[in-house]
Amino acid sequence: MPTNRLSNGIRLSYDDHGGHSGQGVPLVLVHGHPFDRSLWDPQVRALSGTHRVITFDLRGYGASAAPEGEANAPVTDFGDFARDLVALLDHLGVARCALGGVSMGGQIVMDAYGRFPERIAGVLLADTSPATDTEAGKAFRRETAERLLAEGMKGYAEEVLHKMAAPYNEEAAAHVLRMMLAAPPEGAAAALRARAERPDYRPVLPRVTVPALVVVGRDDTYTPVADAEAMHAALPDSRLCVIERAAHLPNLERPEEFNAAVRDWLARLA
After folding, report:
1. Residue 239 CB neighbours (<10 A)
2. How far apart are CA 119 and CA 63, in angstroms?
3. What mean pLDDT is predicted for residues 42-68?
């Protein structure tokens, strides 16, 4: 679990699984809010035997949160996440990668493709949406940020848990709750404020010239199947996978189905 200061001055904690002997381009996976890189544990276990899989904690989350007394600037602009990502690729010597993300992580993937498409060989967008927030949505994110700073993560985590992972997926829900309770409120709040001001990524989608995979849980209420279908229609070369009996995090809730779709996508890249 290395933690290194990158060329942009930010310290990120990451795992580089499978070494350099994996097939094809490395797979880089971006977690969502308010999680950490352990979100991708089922994918690491399933894929790192055949592929180089890189997971990392976003700035302000997990082990990438600043230790007390050490400066590690919180995210202020949503594009900071993509800039951190390319700095990590440079640090690891990765010229081009397959890039995937879930929820907020998917929005980071879209932001990254808009900024440095030459570094991305394929995109995986899981349970995410390209559209900007409404004014009400922006206000809600800002209010939630203030709530997290005032109250901590517990109340929020308990309220949203079964929208993140459906109650019939008990093991996944327990993992999700652990991640949310461990999330630093300062990092989560900063990300919410930055996310409220993110741009509209819908114009990016028709410009994605690499193979894309769109995945969504059938029971996702945050980003429903209709949103995934719209992204699939906008992407020039994409496949859509709807996973039954899963909510917002099908990679944890139904890992076998999710991993099969990812393997098929990676084979297309090869």
Report:
1. 15
2. 25
3. 90
